[in-house]
Amino acid sequence: MSGKNILLGVTGGISAYKSLELTRLLKEWGYSVRVVMTQHAQAFVTLLSFQALSGNPVHTELMDESINHGMRHIELAKWASMIIIAPASANVIAKIAHGIADDLLTTVCLASRAKLFIAPSMNKEMWENAATQENIAKLCARGIEFIGPESGLQACGDDGFGRMTEPEEIISRLHHKTKENTFWKNKKIMITAGATREGIDLVRFISNKSSGKMGYALADAAYLLGAQVTVISGETNQNQPQCHQLHLKQPRIQ
Q1: Among 109, 140, 156, 243, the one annotated catalytic
Q2: What proportion of the chain, given as a percentage, has pLDDT over 90?
Q3: 156 has catalytic annotation
Q4: Cα atoms in the Cβ-side hemisphere of radius 13 Å centred on 229
Q5: 162, burial (CB in 10 Å: exposed 0-12, middle 13-18, buried 19+)
Q6: Which of 169, 192, 218, 219 has the maximal Cβ count within 10 Å?
């Protein structure tokens, strides 16, 4: 991937430590990496760590006297061939969805034509909040790609969707997303997955032990081959298939 310029945006959240490994892996794969950190992100991980791993200065301020006109956001917006925000908080997702540019990261996103990838990380209640889901739907409609989140135990003690996808998986997704996958282009595929329920009365129901693992794996594979995939999902503990462009029905355990 030599010659690919990746701008890595890091926002405030405990998952920010994973972005250090993501930076290392991006460099290992031959990407040129520059990091933009929000003010809240700096409370979790130091600038020096990202500078050491990326080999470039870390950017935090919107206006920079060291460049012409002090417009760091324009310089970074033109430099980046891809932008990844990992972790992406509910706050930054909301700001990008509504075109708010009140710091360096959100201003770069608004000023750049580069492909934008978002790896969310937040508490499960914040992820499931109707406002967050509406913001995500808006961004997906604009062609912005979401990677994750995953389901599991969170730092707060809750268990559910909201964990940031692991760096290795993010790298794998980037490789797939940046290829020209036309094998199933314009194909429309519907996949059912997960346990089904048939009600007996207001209390009882008949179900099965389907895990949804096979259906979700097929959905991911078809999507990465260029198909338009719809997943109709029942109860499952599997991680959600990638990106809401899959038009998921009941993507989480209700």
Answers
A1: 156
A2: 41
A3: yes
A4: 25
A5: buried
A6: 219
